[in-house]
Amino acid sequence: MKGWGWKWRKGPGRPPKPRFLSFRPRGIIFVPQSSDGNPLPPKEPVTLTPDEVEALRLVYIEGLTQEKAAEKMGISRGTLWRTVDSARRKIVLAVVEERPIVISSTIS
């Protein structure tokens, strides 16, 4: 598969499979602003991982089915669903609680 491989390690247990991403995200922060353009008081940010951004992009921008998106990323459909669900929850939390959204570019 072509693309960029990304994976992380969260303690003991089986290591996760690498996810194949078609792009390498840059670190970006979206900060909520009031209607007059002033930044809102700082709150703890919500961080989206590179695989969450890729899963959202494939499903919602490219319009792929979860099966095709999972195949492109080299993961199971269930893993893709959990990744998309996690990203959606984080985005909704950030919008409702007026928290910054950080798109992580780091590989750990």
Task: Please tell me about this protein's structure.
The chain contains 3 helices and 5 strands; from the N terminus they run ββββαααβ. With 108 residues, the chain is an alpha+beta fold. The model has no long low-confidence stretch (mean pLDDT 86). Helix 1 (50-61) crosses helix 3. It has helices at 50-61, 66-73, 77-96; strands spanning 4-6, 19-21, 28-30, 46-48, 101-103. 37% of the residues lie in helices and 14% in strands. The protein has a domain at 62-108. The radius of gyration is 15 Å and the shape is elongated.
In short:
By secondary structure, the chain is of the alpha+beta class.
Topology of this structure?
Elements: E1 4-6, E2 19-21, E3 28-30, E4 46-48, H1 50-61, H2 66-73, H3 77-96, E5 101-103
Parallel strand pairs: 4-5
Antiparallel strand pairs: 1-2, 3-5
Helix pairs in contact: 1-2, 1-3, 2-3
